[in-house]
Amino acid sequence: MNHTGRLISFEGGDGCGKSTQLTLTADWLREQGRDVLETRQPGATALGREIRTLLLSGEFVPVPECELLLFLADRVQHVKAVIQPALNQGKWVLCDRYSDSTLAYQLAARGLAEGTDLKPMLAFAEAGCVPQQTFWLDVPAVLALQRVRTRSKMGEESTRLDEEALSFHERVHAAFVTICQQCPERVVRLDATKDIAVIQQQIQGALV
Question: What DSSP designation does 88 have?
C-alpha cells in the first residue's frame, strides 16, 4: 500500500451488502495505520442531505432528467467540500456509491443514455476525482430485492428507488455488468452471494 490519498468506491444494486463491506474495509484499513474517511452519495454534506431527501423520500417524484441533475449536484458538492480536501490530506476515502451508480440507475435503467452522450456531465460533476479502485458487489436482482424487502419488514426505511419494479433493478444489474467489462483495470467484481467474511478477505487481498 502507498501512503498517498486514494478514492475507493463501493458499488452495486440495493441490497448487495456494499455498505457493510465498506465499514469492514474502513476498520481494517485503520488497523493498518491508514487515515480513512467513510462517506456516501447522496447525502454526505448538509446540502447533500437535503438533496437526498428530495431524491429518495418519495414525497416528490422527479422526472428522470431532474433526478440525474440532482444526483450530479450532490456529487460535485460532495467532491469539492469533502472528497478533494480529504485526498489532499492523504486520506483513504471510501465512498458508498459514485458515478457508476449514476451510469447504472439514471443513464441505463432510466434510459437517459439513449441518443445522448451524458458522460461528460458525469465527468464534470466528478471535478477530477475518479476512483482508483471500485468494488462491485454483484448479486442477482431478484435476490437483492428480496433482501431489501426483508429489511423493510424488519423496520428499516426503504427509499423510492428500493420500491422500483424488478425489471428496473435488472436493468441496473445489467449496466453494472457492462461497466465491469469496460473497466477491468478499475472494477473488482465480488460475488455478493458469498459469506460476508469471504467477501471481506477478497477486498483486503485486492488492496494489499
Answer: H
pLDDT tens column, 35-76: 999 999 999 999 999 999 999 888 889 999 999 999 999 999
Residue tagged 483495470 (cell numbers): 185
Contact 56, 162 (CB under 8 A): no
Query: Which residue from 79, 76, 71 is spatially nearest to 51, judged by alpha carbons?
Result: 71
CA–CA separation, 62 vs 172, rounded Å? 18
CA–CA distance, 92 with 25 (Å, rounded to integer) = 11
Helix (H, G, I), strand (E, B) or coil at 89: coil
Three-state DSSP at 37 gives strand
Helix axes 166-182, 141-153, angle to 10 degrees: 130
- Between CA 5 and CA 93 the distance in angstroms is 7
93 Cβ neighbours under 8 A, 6+ residues apart:
5, 6, 7, 8, 36, 37, 39, 83, 86, 87
How far apart, in whole angstroms, are the C-alpha atoms of residue 12 and residue 96? Answer: 9
Instruction: Enter the DSSP assignment of 129.
Output: -
Q: In this predicted structure, which of 89-103, 157-171, 183-197 has the lowest mean pLDDT? A: 157-171
pLDDT digits (tens, 9 = 90+) for 122-152: 999 999 999 999 999 999 988 877 877 776 6
For the chain, how far is it from start to end, CA to CA, in angstroms?
A: 6
